[in-house]
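Quick question, first post here. What does this chain look like in 3D?
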Amino acid sequence: MQRVNLTPDLTFSRLVYGMWRIGDDADTSPKHVQAKIEACLAQGITTMDQADIYGGYTAEAILGNALKAAPGLRDKLEIVTKCDIVAPVGRHSAARVKYYDTSAAHITASVEASLTDMGTDHVDLLLIHRPDPLIDPDETGPALDALVASGKVRAVGVSNFRPWDFSLLQSSMENNLVTNQIEMSLLATDSFVNGDLAYLQERMVPPMAWSPLGGGRLLDGSKPELLAALKRIGAEHGVDETAVATAWLLRHPATILPVMGTNSLDRITKIADATKVEMDRQTWFELYTLAIGREVA
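> Answer (accepted):
Ran it through. Tokens below.
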């Protein structure tokens, strides 16, 4: 599995396992979660993607229980987590409304809660989950720098930021923002042409792609011609259509890291099939054309 450098001393697996819905599985036992992680490791997938809000603020503890039950497993992984969304559920059930909080106090408290829930002394990457309209970069930036200096966070980045949001926060930081996790798939192609991806490429910042299969909508038949093409190309390479859709992202020179989320052990064992697909430019554009519903101008 290809490794991607985010900092001189931090590398991620090119494919990332997403734990957004880990709490939705009927079996959230440490043994079952460990089986998912081991299935990833067998393919060279070492990077796990979390967020404090996942599962109504319960998903990190589900991962933590598995790590506590399997000493030594944490050292084989890189853990990504996110903060700043406050929703009126779980530990924030007293909140009147859903809102974003990038204050230093909230970020620091969120990291402490994440470390406790996951039973670890550090996270490898902390992301600000959503752009905060009330962000004070002169408060948020130094708070993130302080977490890196403390060793509780190895690197920091953002999620769902537009270029100007990224630039504003970076302007008040000593550490570089090392990624932007944005929605990218054959059903979410705007970033390829609206400047989001170009901005990151120019700065040699590897992006992460959430919902690379369109939340499963790629497979529901709503775009029958696109699905048929994915299946045809998959048959040519001995893989399924999900591998082809993921390979479409891997083909891009921006070094996109798709975040693959599934609770099916069988599907987890096949995540790395995407690396078996050699996609030429014409095939990439064939899928892109079918995705946007027209020929490129």
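Residues 67 and 202 are 38 Å apart (CA to CA).
The chain has a mean pLDDT of 97.
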